[in-house]
Amino acid sequence: MTGSRVRIEDFKGQYPKRGNRLLGNSQAAIARNAKLSSGEIRGLRNWRSIHNFNDATIRKAFRLPDPLSPDGFLWVGFTNPEVNLFPGPLLNDAFDRYYKFGDGRPQYNTLERLRNGDPYYWLGVPEPVLAPNVTPAGGVAPDENRAYVYTLVTEYGEEGPPSVIAEAIGKEDGTWTIDNMDTTVPNPAETPVETKNIYRTITGETSVEFFFVINIPLAQASYVDSFASDVVARNNILESGEWVGPPVDIDNAVVMPNGFFLAWAGRDIHFSETYRPWAWPAAYDLSVQYEIVGAGVYGQSAGIITKGHPYVATGIAPENTTLIKNNTSEPGLSEFSIVSLPYGVLYASQNGLVLLSAQGVTIPTEPMITKDEWLNRYSPTTLKAAQYEDAYIGFYSENKGLIIDPQDANESFIELDAFERIDMIQTDEQTGEVYVIRGGVVYLWDDVQSERVGYRWRSKDFYFRRPCNMGAAIVDMESVDDVTADVTAIVLAARAFNAERIQYPLCPIGSSTFGGSIKPPMLPPPHDADPQNRNAIGGSPLIDTGQILTRNSDVQFNVYADGVLVFTNQILDNKMFKLPTGFKKDIWTFEVVGRRTIYSINVAETAKGLGDV
To answer: How far apart are alpha carbons 292 and 306 in whole angstroms?
Structure first.
């Protein structure tokens, strides 16, 4: 007889809600820092530093395509983590405008001005202050009643709402002098107005419309109009009648797929005109019952997360967007927990992670975790999250986080604890890459060029009705050749770093040597957390390349019997190894800790029994 045996493969994430005995054979009691989507246990990769702002207070970063900047990108950072910086919705925008929300009054800037360090402009074009006067003169044609307005226009062609209407009766073929127009704006440093557009009505039209007459400089106080009506009638009609700027108290915004912004302030929702982000007609405004926490976008819809019921706003244009309230009370607990995914919006609520989608409201974490566990172990009120591939990644403290993928049973729930001092995590919408920000430095998450971090995967409690002694095991894992190939680039990078590091003076005490040499810059993770690599008094300031292959090759295999650790050892290959004998237990648990990829875990009472696993 071969006795009791266990084979574990197609590894899955953890399900804290389930009792350890009731888990499926491939489900985990503990799954940390692992990638399981392939069914194998692979360690996540470490970060790689990609930009240093040299400002430890930076909490949000954006990488803007810029052919005139080093590496083809311009980095823009903010100390306020609520800030969102969106590229303009206008295709092939000649000015490369970017729009900033989440930091007080909405603002915008051009790529060139950002590159030069110039300040932001206020979003929106002001309404003229002065009411124009119109004075007709001369002419022999019949009298007509004519009305004039003017608008302010920025250097980027953005047009604001019209002035008060000025009317007069005169001859169609006479001259009409328009004066008393604005020649300055109240805040010229914040509003780059350069010109004015003048519009007028035309007698005989079936509807009262204002037709474009001429564009004149802002400084020009008056204009004499002598254009014939049949000429003006061929010009454009005034579009900006309701184009006021956005409310100054907007909390934040998202971009809808068809080129308009959806923003919110308190309980109110505001929309920009399609492809005209400076224009926010009040007629488009909507309201919800509770204060808005934040929003995310999927498809043609926006999920509106409030302090009460969630809402879905759907529409291909702002003027026909409808708002639907979901009757499930799932308030949002953290604006930073809101993540837009292709299939819906995920956010932290009191009952777990909530998915707001076309199917309504569901709680993907409900099968995995209880409400008490969610609130007490994972601190949803402090959760900061981002999209990681098609999954949800979040950190609820500086070094504790989770990965949840509602659509992948293997990666349903992964804990993270191998990363330190995280200030913010975000997704670059233009590349899909995930950034971690720490101390003003931007790191690329799970970088393919970086070393893997250590994972921990612990099985369910396997219960046997007849107590047994598990005496032999095989951990099937990737070959040393594969490990070597995986870390070759990392070793080469470490050697290059060492060669560069040797150029700096050593720092045996404090931040400088006795001779006054400056301390070298902080090393990249994981070495920045290792004191011996910073000061010679604690050890070598160089990366130990000899240890890279060793720590990526070793796998620690732990065996628990009735909850007590009975075996722990480093496993170097796929060969069978013996486990302790002389006792029998009815509950057995198995755990692997390491960086090397694991394909399966096989345990039996005897070596012969392994052949039947």
So the answer is: 4
- For tokens 């002598």, the residue is 226
**CB of 109 within 8 A of CB of 118?**
yes
| 11 three-state secondary structure | coil
Q: Which pLDDT belongs to residue 507?
A: 52
Are residue 152 and residue 217 in the same domain, yes or no?
yes
Decide the pairing of beta strands 252-255 and 261-265.
antiparallel
Greater confidence, 505 or 94? 94
Size (the chain), residues: 613
Residues 385, 387, 392, 395, Cα dihedral to 10°: -30
Compute the distance between CA of residue 544 and CA of residue 501 in angstroms, rounded to an integer: 13
198 lies in the same domain as 249: no
> Are the C-beta atoms of residues 587 and 462 closer than 8 Å to each other?
yes
Q: Which residue range is the domain that position 146 belongs to? A: 133-242
Residue 163 domain flag: yes
For residue 104, is it within any domain?
no
In a domain, 537, yes or no: yes
| Residue 329: per-residue pLDDT | 93
Residue closest to 35 by CA, chosen among 403, 286, 311: 403
**Residues 161 and 236 both lie in one domain:** yes
What is the largest distance, in Å, between two alpha-carbon atoms of the chain?
121
How far is Cα 343 from Cα 340, in angstroms, rounded to an integer?
8
Tokens matching residue 285: 């405004």
Q: Do 255 and 160 share a domain, yes or no? A: no
User: Which of 15, 28, 97, 18 has its CA nearest to residue 64?
Assistant: 97
Q: pLDDT confidence of 510, banded at 50, 70, 90? A: very low
Percent of the chain predicted with pLDDT > 90:
78
Tens of pLDDT, residues 139-162: 999 999 999 999 999 999 999 999
Number of domains making up the chain: 4
